[in-house]
Amino acid sequence: MAQAAREAMAKPRLRAYADRGYFNGPQIKGCADVGIVPFVPKPMTSNAKADGRFDKRDFIYIAKVARGR
Fold it and tell me: What is the pTM of this model?
């Protein structure tokens, strides 16, 4: 799709943006191979849940104020 867009717009350089779940590794590589810069979100892949372990989504940060000395 990005290659077709670049050709339709007759642009030598193009940046392609994709939402989570709408891209795969070969598409990213294909863009990079023809000089299109792909911008994609960091995948949320972890097999921790499947293995019965906690993953980072199970934790939250609670800031604690240090007591004065």
Answer: 0.53
